[in-house]
Amino acid sequence: MALIAFMSLTMLSANAQTGTLPIMYIETRNHQPITSKTIYIPGTYFIVDSQNSEFNIGSAESPMSLEIRGRGHSSWRGVKKPYKIKLAAKTQLLGMKKHKHWALLKFYEPTVAGMQLGNIMGMDWTPSTRPVEVVLNGDYLGLYLLTETNRISKNRLNIYEQPNWNEDENTIPYGWLVEVDNYYETNQISIRENNSWNLRITYHSPDSLSTAQRQWLVGEFQNINSAIYDEDKINSTWEQMIDVDAMARYFIIQEVLDNSDGFHGSFYLHKDLMDDARWVAGPLWDLSCNQRAKTDYTFRMKTSYGFTPHWIGELIKDPDFCIAVKEAWDEFYPHEVQSWMEYIDEHLLLCSDAFEQEKVRWNYTNQEPLNVRVDRLKSALHANIEWFNNNLPSTPDTNTNVVLVNKEVVKVEYVNMAGMSSTCPWNGVNIKVTTYDDGSTSTTKVVVK
After folding, report:
1. Are 283 and 316 in a shared domain?
2. Owning domain of residue 330
3. Contacts 24+ apart (CB under 8 A), 37-46
4. 328 φ, ψ to 5°?
């Protein structure tokens, strides 16, 4: 009798998917439950996309191999679990570039909006994400975001990657991917940031350090931290170690999203191998939007939990940082806002039917349809944008720069990799050229997916 009840539940759950989105079917070996965030379980998968058959991968008769485990910190404690996936072979999933490593994140509207903002703001690389419905061992799990993970590789963050256990002092300073973290990890160093908190740096690549690598990393971030906290902001040296433009763009993204975790955790930095290499903010990860009335910079506003706004309270006092924020903002506001809002509508509202099933599967108490949630998110983003535009960070030094404050955008064009120009961005990688009324120009990379 129990077996019949289990089979009935399985059939009911498996038939819950709407098919309006790609469906990812996963089976673990012997239907073993996924209970660990460290131990992978072998299994198989296939993807059915009834809207675009060229995205189909494998089949029920011939599934593909994978390994799967849990992932996340606070999100793992929820009833609906996020997962980390490692495919047996590098595979192009749903139009995203080939790779073995992927994540299944809980569906969250600010993630979709924020990742696209990263593309618009010209971050070095931003993870792509696609909505999918997931069926695990016959159980319909609802709506997820199949997402590229932050890794150094040709089809992800394409920079030099130094090897584990490196002893070569000439290459140790290059090829890093680290995270300013708010959780304790074993692959981590910790230094004293200020009188109130420590700075935790989790090293993801390389992920196993020689003594020489560890000593260099500790010394590097002690030097960076000392430079950032230098009281002489005019002559501080942190810009010799950190890319000020990328940090300014990262700051804008966190402010527009009103993401309290932006300088608290999941705050990634990377460093390539090149002349005068500096640490660059990004890639983005773990984005949220408070959707509250914004009355101050996000790192100064209270939340329901304690957070540590690493560095930003000092960076915002630096004139060069404030100038970089203003220049990056002029590239974004106001001409990129409408296309971003259209992207949010286009890529979120197609999830409406699947979201209705998601609410049933996980017994949501809030029964609002997705379009209402999306409209509320866009309203919050619009309000954040206008608040920030009226409260751009400045110091007495930047306030005296009349030319910078007053210049207006007169022309924006996009140039693709073939050298063709247009007033609208091309699909793929573009160089956005902004011309101002004083004859000056600025350029930034824009990726349209």
Report:
1. yes
2. 159-401
3. 37/69, 37/70, 37/71, 37/72, 37/76, 37/84, 38/69, 39/69, 40/67, 40/68, 40/69, 40/86, 41/67, 41/68, 41/69, 42/66, 42/67, 43/67, 43/68, 45/85
4. -65, -35
Residue 405 above 80 pLDDT?
A: no
Model confidence band, residue 125 (pLDDT cutoffs 50, 70, 90): very high
Residues 6+ apart with CB under 8 A from 416: 422, 426, 428, 429, 430
User: Residues 168, 290: one domain?
Assistant: yes
43-47: list long-range contacts, CB under 8 Å, 24+ apart: 43/67, 43/68, 45/85, 47/22, 47/23, 47/93, 47/94, 47/132
Same domain, 82 and 214: no
Q: What is the mean pLDDT of residues 379-393?
A: 98
How many domains, the chain? 3
Give residue 403's pLDDT: 39
Rounded CA separation 371/385 (Å): 21
Q: Please tell me the total number of residues recorded for the chain in this structure.
A: 449
Mean pLDDT for 74-99 is 95
SS3 126: coil
Per the rule left: phi > 0, alpha: psi between -120 and 50, beta: everything else, 267 is beta
pLDDT, averaged across the chain: 91
Main-chain phi, psi angles of 193, to 5 degrees: -85, -50
Task: Dig out the tokens for 350 from the structure.
Answer: 């197609």
> For helices 109-120 and 337-348, what crossing angle results, to 10°?
140
Tens-place pLDDT, residues 201-246: 999 999 999 999 999 999 999 999 999 999 999 999 999 999 999 9
Instruction: Tell me, yes or no, whether 13 and 43 share the same domain.
Output: yes
116 within some domain: no
Question: Which residue carries 């810009």 as its tokens?
Answer: 239
CB 266 within 8 A of CB 349: no
Buried b (16+ CB within 10 A) or exposed e, 29-39: eeeeebeeeee
In a domain, 213, yes or no: yes
* C-beta atoms surrounding 433 within 10 Å: 16
Residue 162, classed as helix, strand or coil, is: coil
Among 75, 76, 63, CA closest to 26: 63
Helix, strand, coil percentages, rounded to 5, for the chain: 30, 25, 40
What end-to-end distance do the CA atoms of the chain give, in Å?
A: 50
Confirm if 441 and 448 have CB atoms less than 8 A apart: no
Same domain, 283 and 297: yes
> 366 forms bridges with which residues in the sheet?
none
